[in-house]
Amino acid sequence: MSQKLTCPVCDRPEITDNICPNCETDLTFVRLLTEKKPVAVIPKPEQIPQPTITNKFTSGVVILILIMGISLGAVSSWLFLKLPSSIYEPAQSTAISPSQTSPQKASANKRIDDLLAKTPQTKPPTVKAKCTGDFRYKVRRGDHLWLIAERFYGKGKLWKRIAKANPVLEKRQNNLIEREILIIPNLEENCR
Questions:
Q1: Domains and CATH numbers, the chain
Q2: What is the pLDDT of residues 10-48, one digit of tens each?
C-alpha cells in the first residue's frame, strides 16, 4: 500500500495519488524520497568469490583470440597496401580481333563498316541560340533609364533597350517609380 503524503505546495494531507487533487502538483519525486528502499548490501572482501582455474583459463583464451584477431587484421591491411594493384583490381577486358571472332560476326561487322563508309559524314547544323537570361531590377530612388543602362551595360545610350523590354514604360521613360520592377535584357555580345 502506498504511503499517504501531504502536498508541499498547498498542505493538503492524506494524498494517496501522485497528483495533488487540490493544486495538481506532481508528487512522484516526493513519493520516491519518502518511500523506503532496500539498501544494497556491500559484500566484505572475504565474501567475494575468488577466480578459479577455469575462470582464469577462459579469460586467457578470450585474450588470446582477441590478440590473434587484431594481428590478423593488421597483417591483412599491410598486405593490401603493399601488394601490386593487379592482384586485387579486376582485370581489364581485352579487345578481340576480327580473326578471333566467328565468321558470322566478322561478316556482320564488315557490313556495318561498309555502311558507315558509304554514308556521307555531315556536320550537324549550327544554330545560334537565342539570348536568354534577362533579369529583373528593382528601381531605387533617383534612378533613371540612362543611369540603369550605364550601370548594367557600361553605356548610358543603350537605355532604349531597357525601355523596349518594358512596355509599361511607354510614354513615361523619365518617370520611374521607386520599387518598380524592370526587366533588363542581356546584350547579344554576352550571349555567346
A1: 1-38 (no CATH), 135-190 (3.10.350.10)
A2: 888 888 888 888 888 888 888 877 776 666 777 777 777
